[in-house]
Specification:
With 115 residues, the protein is mostly helical. It is built from six helices and two strands. The protein has one domain.
Amino acid sequence: MLLYLVATMVWPYPGAVLLVGLDRALLLVALVCLSIGLAETYRQSTGPLTARALALVALLPFSALCFAYAIARSVVLAETRGVTWRGTRYPLTLLRAQTGLEGTPVRRASPRSAR
């Protein structure tokens, strides 16, 4: 997910400056498409484009980097500390065991015992 996010939302900006030839042209086309798509999404959701909207379009790579950081940080914290919910900390091994993702079969109550 992080690689996809950085490759599609961040890399076109430095790539358009650093690369030459056809690569630069293709990245410029990608930048134009990203900018138009984001501006059109903003226009459809809030109304006419303003200077603030254009500033938000220009900040796309920064916001994508912030989002990538938030994803990476949440993964690291969940893997190292577990998940805290309603004041109780649950290790991921416990949560995965309950869903069967750790290779441990889930023990479910039979329909007769639920009655």
